[in-house]
Amino acid sequence: KGESPMLEVGTSSHALNISGDFQREIPIQARRSYADFLEMSTGIITRPVDDNSGRVLYVGHGVDSWAYAIQLEGSNAANYQDPGAQNIAMSTEIIADTNVKLAGVPASEPMTVGLVVIIVTKSGGDRFSGAATYTFEPFSWNGNNVPAGASATSDTSGRGLPVTQKINQPDLAFGGPIKRGKAWFFGAYRYQNTLTGVGFTTQQVQNYSALVKGWTPFSNTLRGSQPFLKLTTQ
Length: 234
What we know:
Shape: globular
Helix content: under 10%
Strand content: 35-45%
Number of helices: 2
Largest sheet: 6 strands, mixed
Number of strands: 13
Oligomer: single chain
Order of helices and strands: EEHEEEEEEEEEEHE
Radius of gyration: 21 Å
């Protein structure tokens, strides 16, 4: 950190460099998404995705993140079916540096009508090092606009149920030498276990309850493992 700034702005190519250490030290989103660096990028606005998933949609310079070019070590990181930045899952522990080209993108970069994002991952070194973090958020930490003693599902003011989240997410990372001065390894692992309470208006709750016997508001479950392994030699 003392050797170079953690956040740099390139004036000629209209690019922004955000180091992984800088991103991890700033708690921007509760999920610790790798795409949190977009929250620090000039001209980016965010809004919830319209599917009650709790994901965030990143909109920059008139287009959303489905139109971005996102590269991981020079390879395309997005899938062609649903390529939004919010749909790519990886541990933030793997990020060494991120470059976001905001405007004036050179012809050597991938063609896109949005931003060009280049992610460089960590590599192992001649010393063993590691990191461990645990992200936790219970439903009880989520607020709403319903007064104490009132029910969101029968509220006469129609305040309804907001989108809520319950997060259990450990992150582990470890790297070091295979042979000092010759070969190194770096690995990271994230287990994601998220419950997202789907938001409903009071009228929706009343309509669904009337149409389907025994219907109650529910949560979406997202569980998954996100491993990463990198070997380097010289």
